[in-house]
Amino acid sequence: MSKLKIFQDKHVRSHWDADKELWYFSIIDIITVLTGSDRPRKYWNDLKLKLNKEGSQLSEKIGQLKMKSADGKLYLTDVADTETMLRLIQSIPSPNAEPFKLWLAQVGYERIEENEDPEKTIDRAMAAYLAKGYSKEWINQRLKSIDVREELTDEWEQRGVKRG
Q1: How many distinct helices (H) and strands (E) make up the chain?
Q2: CA torsion, points 48, 54, 56, 60, in degrees to nearest 10?
Q3: Strand pairing partners for 89?
Q4: pTM higher than 0.90
Q5: Which end of the chain is more exposed for a tag (fewer CB within 10 A), N or C?
């Protein structure tokens, strides 16, 4: 399933791979949005060379999919899944990329905190659900159902049931 995402009034071509359960995004479109470059293909080629010189393994994670171009035709387009795209964004020196980089740093910091104190994970989940408008009763029920599901899957595992 291919879709157009709109980011800052710009179109970003994307594709959902149902088998892998992953979104893929056009790298050229993301570069256009984040750099404002009028030559995003040249920018992407230069960035690939730079990353290869630095020893990055990112090029192994880049794929190609046929995506509809502005002229309505399908062309092979370099694509990356969400994780790879976030890594690429870290390599783009642009003021437009800075909010993403700050967000990634914040999320990384929070994950480190959660590893040190797992209770912070629960606190953040509660805050996120509250921000989305869920009631405290609903949130508590949700957390209990997660706990019950974990107990059930632990029991199955102890009795030799395999996943999948």
Answers
A1: 6, 5
A2: 40
A3: none
A4: no
A5: C
